Amino acid sequence: MRSLRADRNLLKRKLIDLENHIRGTLRVRSEQSAAEDTKRGYAS
Fold this sequence. Notes:
Largest sheet: none
Oligomer: single chain
């Protein structure tokens, strides 16, 4: 049982890490897109 709990905790941590990585990537892309829109004169 102890090893199952440890495995579950590891998988949960990896899932959270992956979600945070994706969220950070999307945020950077969004900021880059907003910067490009500002250069082109689009209002946000």
